[in-house]
Amino acid sequence: MGLLGEILLLPAAPVRGAGWVLRQVVAEAERQYYDPAAVQRELSSLAEQLDQGLIDEAEFDRREDELLDRLEVAQQRRAAAPGSGFAPPSNEGRTS
């Protein structure tokens, strides 16, 4: 782009910076949401709630299915981008 382009885009720098920050926050939130250790902890907590009678079998099954889906997406991400820890799920159809 060059110096002239950078000078012309200088007024948009705060917007570009805010966009970068927003992308970083979203990436970190997704990383934490799909973290296999976090999903395992939630599954363990869910089993404890069922054992203590705090939830019924139907609620357990529904929430367990959601957590297992998250775990599957986490494994797909790891397979798609080894070492990076982040890759969008292939079924979301997002473009960058």
Main structural class: mainly alpha
Count of helices? Answer: 4
What are the low-pLDDT stretches, counting only 5+ consecutive residues below 50? 92-96
Q: Share of helix among residues?
A: over 70%
Using the CA coordinates, give the radius of gyration. 20 Å
| First-to-last CA distance | 20 Å
Q: What percentage of amino acids are in beta strands?
A: under 5%
Oligomer: single chain
Number of strands: 0
Taking the sheet with the most strands, its summary is:
none
**H and E string:** HHHH
* General form: elongated
Give an overview of the whole structure:
- The protein has 96 residues and is mainly α.
- It has a domain at 36-79.
- Helix content is 72%, strand content 0%.
- The protein has helices at 2-9, 13-33, 36-51, 57-80.
- Helix 3 packs antiparallel against helix 4 (57-80).
- The longest helix has 24 residues, at 57-80.
- The chain is elongated and about 65 Å long.
- The chain starts with a helix and ends in a 16-residue tail after the last helix.
- Mean pLDDT is 85; it is low at 92-96.
Brief overview, please?
With 96 residues, this protein is mainly alpha-helical. It has helices at residues 2-9, 13-33, 36-51, 57-80.
Pick out its properties.
single chain, 96 residues, mainly alpha, 4 helices, 72% helix
SSE topology:
Blueprint (H helix, E strand, L loop, with lengths): L1 H8 L3 H21 L2 H16 L5 H24 L16
